[in-house]
Specification:
Number of helices: 6
Strand order of the largest sheet: 3-2-1-4-5-6-7
CATH topology of the largest domain: Rossmann fold
Largest sheet: 7 strands, mixed
Number of strands: 9
Number of domains: 2
Bound molecules: glycinamide ribonucleotide
Helix content: 25-40%
CATH architecture of the largest domain: 3-Layer(aba) Sandwich
CATH superfamily of the largest domain: Formyl transferase, N-terminal domain
Strand content: 15-25%
Structural class: alpha/beta
């Protein structure tokens, strides 16, 4: 399925998506009929399979290779220049596995969102599923949040929780979480593009949405 052509709606918000790898979240976004124009997909790795997914959907792709830069600052400067050439309203980190400098994050304050495979603030960083299994938690999940200077922290937009099963491996747990990532990430971007999200003075995401006060995921199931 090809993404909608650029000229469909001039008032539409424009987004740029950054990836590093497989691009399954990118695919979920491209297949979600988002109310925005996807101006470009940028990867820090030329071999990222996600670039091919973007091309198949007719999206412009760019590579800003981190290894051709001597330090984070010069990489982030080239990355920012590349992003700014598309004048996006939102920058989406969809499996972008580089730590960004405080200057980069500040430049895109409240315009930069990330998906992370854990229920933040638990398990920031890498190997989230392995660590959750090692700790024996019964509920795990994923988070979409605004990016701040603190890696994998920032105002939370939406989370999904999944049960951890007795015979889970990091791979089976990752697959269960990833399925939910593909659901909540398009939702978060849709809310942003439709102007449904605002931030409170103390840095929390405010939105008028249906809440579910009687709803609980209990894991394992009770008798
Ligand atoms: C996803 O699980 C995403 O949550 C994670 O990388 C994976 C990318 O998969 N991101 C992070 O860990 C960021 N801290 P994908 O390339 O198939 O979308």
């Amino acid at each position: 399925m090809k993404h909608k052509p650029e000229s469909v709606n001039v008032s539409m918000k424009s987004i740029v998506i950054l990836i590093s790898g497989l691009g399954s979240n990118l695919r979920a976004l491209l297949e979600s009929d988002l109310p925005c124009r996807i101006a470009a997909v940028i990867s820090n790795r030329a071999a990222a399979p996600g670039l091919e997914i973007a091309k198949q959907h007719g999206i412009t792709t760019r590579v800003v290779a981190h290894h051709s830069h001597p330090d984070r600052e010069s990489f982030d400067t080239e990355l920012a220049n590349c992003i700014d050439s598309y004048r996006p309203d939102l920058i989406v980190l969809a499996g972008f596995m580089r730590i960004l400098t405080p200057q980069f994050v500040a430049r895109y304050q409240n315009k930069l969102i990330n998906i992370h495979p854990s229920l933040l603030p638990a398990y920031s960083g890498l190997n989230t599923h392995t660590r959750a299994l090692r700790d024996g938690v019964k509920i795990h999940g994923c988070t979409v949040h605004f990016v701040t200077g603190d890696v994998d922290h920032g105002p939370i937009i939406i989370q999904a929780a999944v049960p951890v099963l007795m015979d889970d491996t990091p791979a089976t747990l990752a697959a269960r979480v990833l399925y939910q990532e593909h659901r909540i990430f398009p939702q978060a971007i849709r809310w942003f593009c439709n102007g449904d999200i605002s931030l409170s003075a103390d840095g929390k995401v405010l939105m008028k949405r249906l809440e579910q006060p009687g709803c609980a995921l209990i894991s394992p199931e009770m008798e």
